[in-house]
Fold these 2 entries.
Entry 1:
Amino acid sequence: MKLEFKDLLIDQTRFILSDSSPAFANSLRRAMTSEVLTFAIEDVRVYDNSSALFDEMLAHRLGLIPIVTEYAGYTPRDVCSCDGAGCSQCSVTFTMSVEGPRMVASGDLISQDPVIKPVSDDIPIVKLESGQKVVIEARAILNAGNEHVKWQPTTICGYKNYPVIRIDDNCDGCGHCVEACPKGILAVVDGTVCVKDGMDTECSLCRLCEQACLNSGIGEKPAIHIDMDPKRFLFTMESCGSLPPATIIKEGLQFLKNQSDNLLETLEDL
Ligand code: SF4
Ligand code: SF4
Ligand SMILES: [Zn+2]
């Protein structure tokens, strides 16, 4: 198995997984979306809420705010020595006290840990009119997306098979496929069609080029063929900001390794 990064930005990445299988590619996708731990607000104590929102709605909105996550010094609440009561090892406390008229935003949450904080200060929560107030205390804990989507670290996480584009010798360079390609990745060079340099990954596998070639009257088979490499996968992943993309991939792979180690141990014990 091999990973090759095409882009690795602060909040998104595209990478190629090769020498792999559809089962492993899908397991990695699911691990990254559902098994990687992040912080999200779980408990909210409302001291005052005269806004237009019910307490439950306010708590729901707070829970959906992505929180910058660092694992050092923290442990999931269900395995913490406090037995789930909530302590400084498994919870981060936020306080917020705002009086209208103004918009309450994520930046109004004051965290006890300056590292564990909302990914942006500008996420709107509720608009307060003059005299309205919101005073709350909230606790964020580590958990995974399989428990609730608010702990999911990715906003986009998907893959496609790596496109394989073949051109036969009977291509006459008519250019019909070039015009039909919605991604603009084909070109006619020296009387034959070819894929522009480094653009093969942009192919959406739509096969409009094959159809255009057939429509050009070339015969029963097109001169251009679109296939999928069954062992190579092109992943696109975007983080919600709680973790860097590289950490999400690493944690997803670590989860799969732990699962397979556990399975091996169980099988050895049988
Ligand atoms: S399959 Fe679609 S995107 Fe890919 S080369 Fe053909 S027309 Fe372009
Ligand atoms: S439509 Fe067919 S024959 Fe014409 S350039 Fe494309 S592949 Fe070649
Ligand atoms: Zn604890």
Entry 2:
Amino acid sequence: MKAVVLRGFKTPLRLEEVEDIEALGKGEVLLKMEMTGVCYRDILTVDGYFPKTRLPIILGHEVCGRVVDVGEEVSEFKKGDRVASLTYIPCGQCPECRRGEENICRRRLWFGEDIHGSYAEYLKTNFRSLVKAPEDVSSEAVAISACVTAMLIHALESRGGLKEDEKVLITGATGGVGVHAIQVAKSYGAEVVAVTGRVEFVDNLYKIGADHVIVSRDGAYSEEVKKITGGMGVDMVLECVGLTIIESLRSVRWGGRIIQVGNIKPEPIPLALGHFILKEVSLHGSLSCTRKELAEALELHRTGKVNPVTKVFPLEEVEEAHRMIRERKHFGRIMLKP
Ligand SMILES: [Zn+2]
Ligand SMILES: [Zn+2]
């Protein structure tokens, strides 16, 4: 089959012929890939920020596929089923998995890092990663349903407890996460303040549902947030960037919360902890999603409450797709079609 293989950190990517996937083991499922998403995490993987990545590896963890074969002891799925997948295979047995918090399973296997991923014609997974996807949801929507939409359900609702009429600030609003975060937050009835450094996308942000857009090239947006919120600050910040957390801390109200989902430059940041104490601000890390949230995400797509905003490249143009993300020229999610 054809696949994009990462052979060494910081080396160029290209589509190449690799060995076909062999016989399936217990619980395993073979998918023919319909569409995969390109995540900023893939860029970080290429750059070596996840040094435990098992090279050489087929990149990618965002999956829309169709079942073409199943191993023994797979009863939930059969040949022909259309599926979405978690970005990892949970172990299914540890305390976290048993509590339904499989996103923090310490024995999980992450596609594109621990096991071969989705930048390929076929993907081998385990039934524990899969959720059936309706036929009337587009392949782009299925492919973003785990790493983007369900991840946002996990961040905004499960971790952040976002409620109707609350004000939420979204940083990095024009990226693949930000664009869909605006839609998910609106589906909860929140008032959305979007922050971007890209003036050319302001109209697009209003079109997809932002109530307020702040253009900030220098990353200093808290004064603008205070003006919008009558001096109070927002109830919640969805921090998609990382570097901007200091400014987000200035933008959140007393007693508010910051949900950290993105970290585009994984380097330490000096944080004045006094702000957390004196304003009683809470900071929540949020990682990926569970199968339950993945099913909820597919429903948000099926009902049209969240619509994918994507640009699709053929798989052989993987380098061009990655370059667009590195240069932040795109609005929404970049996808690869095998
Ligand atoms: Zn992803
Ligand atoms: Zn587990």
